[in-house]
Design brief:
The structure holds two protein chains of two kinds. By secondary structure, chain A is of the alpha/beta class. Chain A has two domains: about 160 residues, Rossmann fold; about 60 residues, no CATH class. Helices cover about 35% and strands about 25% of the residues of chain A. Chain A has nine helices and ten strands. Chain A has a six-stranded mixed beta sheet, with helices on both faces. A four-stranded antiparallel beta sheet of chain A has the order 2-1-4-5, with helices on one face. The longest helix of chain A is centred in the last third of the chain and has 16 residues. Chain A is globular. Chain B is α+β, with helices and mostly antiparallel strands. Chain B has a four-stranded antiparallel beta sheet with strand order 2-3-1-4. Chain B is elongated and about 105 Å long.
Chain lengths: ~240, ~300
């Protein structure tokens, strides 16, 4: 499903974010990309989503070699990919439903069919009751679930997430008693929301979707025992 | 095909929504575009009317053919034959006796004519050619001047020439004016679309990330530019129509004072459609330029 061979990414200026990494993710696997901050997790996610291009080596996703992809072919590759961003990238000028409708409009689905599918996706992440709400009125966890609904509404073969719980912290700091804050060993303060999010990913994994999640959060790995790609200073160590 | 159609419909609907959601901006833009198109449009219709006026003014495009004084009946017959063969249009023969009688009929001339020992006037033909183009008239004049026993050929079209030259000049000025306003219209659309792209930077970025093609992102802006231009064109047609309607009566009165009957004709369906189409094209062009430049930073 995703095959990297001798993959490297060097940014202009000489910084080498990924150094000669090779791995294979087969269809239906759940894989976590972990590592310290700056290890190259985000770079790898961006390469898989063809937001950036490799400088050396090859990366094949869904049978398409991304290093040799024409610019005009990129949109069609991305449509087979459900992408959840760290900063969610929701649109605040429209309702939750309209946010989820966007990928279907891009794919050119008839409106009635699109609404039916978007509602189903919202239902799956537990937001059907909030479909008319503006995303700005949703909590951090709800916003992230909305972002997941948008990522999966097109029934992608790969669900790709970059630090999906990365900014749930500030939200939970308000909601949770401070005494529990000290007890959190991982520094991820909103464990309820984060667990919800992860549970949703696990559900998609169970129905056969390939799930790739970049995270620095070790507690998740202990809980789900996924395949792990551990990065350290741009090199693959496990 | 179905997906293609529904995407175009969605882009058009989105263009309408954008126009509708900022009514003040829309009205101002439409006014700018409408006025920019009104001036050349009004000029065009006015020139069209003037050209009609020039064509209708009959009795002006005449060729006067004067025979030699010693020309006899046979020579006149020869010229009549040639005129018949040339089939240039209407013509009539004015014998010298008739010309003299006409002069006598005029009070001022009667005394002078009476004092003349003999008739000094030549036989003449008055030709009214069917083809009144100045160039054609000039060719005909030269041809007739070469016929036997013809003393002088006079083309009474000096003012036709002047009028034609004026029309040509006015047409050129109109084209220059139209060019300037067209550039203005493109600039107005360019700026409107640029601001829209900036305002929708978030949507464009997200759409790109989740698989939107360039065409999908550009389409609503093209529709917006074309729609705004077309509406501006319709507004311009309305303004031209209004102005001509207001002018029609005074112009009719003026023409009546000069003993003529001349009425302004207002733009028809084809002219209205042409204005809307020109507006739409220029709006589309402005959108095209603007989107190409503004979207570069999203790459």
């Amino acid at each position: 499903m995703i095959v990297a061979s001798n993959l490297s990414k060097r940014y202009p200026g000489g910084y080498e974010a990924l150094k000669d990494i090779s791995f294979e993710i087969s269809a239906g696997q759940m894989v976590f990309i972990t590592g310290h901050s700056g290890a190259g997790k985000s770079t790898l996610v961006k390469l898989i989503a063809s937001i950036e291009r490799p400088t050396a080596g090859s990366l094949v996703v869904n049978g398409q070699n991304l290093s040799a992809l024409r610019r005009s072919a990129i949109p069609y590759v991305r449509r087979h990919l459900g992408m959840v961003f760290q900063d969610q990238k929701l649109l605040f000028d429209r309702s939750a439903l309209d946010n989820v409708l966007l990928p279907l409009q891009i794919a050119g689905l008839p409106r009635r069919e699109a609404i039916r599918r978007a509602s189903a996706a919202l239902d799956k992440v537990g937001l059907l009751a909030r479909e008319k709400a503006n995303p700005i009125a949703l909590s951090g966890g709800e916003q992230q679930r909305l972002a997941i609904a948008r990522a999966v509404v097109n029934r992608p073969t790969v669900l790709l997430a970059d630090e999906p719980t990365g900014n749930l912290d500030s939200d939970s700091a308000v909601n949770r008693p401070t005494v529990l804050l000290a007890d959190e060993p991982t520094g991820n303060l909103d464990s309820d929301s984060a667990a919800d999010i992860l549970e949703i990913f696990a559900e998609f994994h169970q129905v056969g979707v390939t799930v790739v999640v970049a995270t620095h959060d070790q507690s998740w790995i202990e809980r789900y025992h996924p395949n792990v790609l551990r990065l350290d200073h741009g090199r693959l160590v496990a | 095909m179905n997906a293609w159609f529904s995407q175009h419909r969605a882009a058009l609907a989105s263009a309408f929504r954008r126009l509708w959601s900022t009514p003040l901006n829309t009205v101002l833009s439409l006014l700018v575009i409408g006025i920019a198109l009104t001036l050349p449009g009004f000029g065009y219709v006015l020139l069209d009317n003037l050209r009609d006026l020039g064509n209708n003014a009959s009795g002006v495009q005449q060729i006067s053919l004067f025979m030699n004084l010693d020309a006899d009946k046979k020579d006149i017959g020869e010229i009549e034959n040639r005129l018949k063969q040339a089939a240039t249009g209407k013509w009539r023969f004015v014998p010298k006796e008739e010309a003299l009688k006409r002069m006598q009929a005029s009070e001022d001339m009667a005394e002078i004519v009476a004092s003349l020992p003999r008739n000094p006037l030549p036989d003449a033909f008055i030709v009214e050619p069917t083809n009144s183009e100045p160039e054609a008239l000039e060719i005909l004049r030269k041809e007739i001047a070469g016929w036997p026993k013809v003393a002088h050929v006079q083309l009474d079209s000096a003012w036709v020439k002047r009028f034609d030259a004026f029309l040509k000049l006015a047409k050129l000025a109109l084209w220059m004016l139209a060019g300037i306003f067209a550039a203005g219209l493109v600039a107005v659309t360019f700026n409107t679309i640029r601001l829209q792209v900036l305002a929708q930077a978030a949507e464009i970025e997200v759409a790109r990330m989740i698989g939107a093609t360039d065409a999908f992102i550009r389409r609503p802006f093209y529709y917006f530019g074309a729609l705004q231009g077309a509406l501006g064109g319709l507004l311009a047609a309305g303004l031209v129509f209004g102005a001509l309607t207001l002018l029609a009566e005074p112009v009719g009165e003026l023409a009546a004072l000069y003993g003529g009957s001349f009425s302004l004709h207002v733009p028809g369906a084809i002219e209205v459609a042409a204005l809307a189409a020109i507006g739409a094209f220029l709006g589309w062009l402005g959108a095209q330029l603007s989107v190409s430049l503004s979207l570069r930073k999203f790459d």
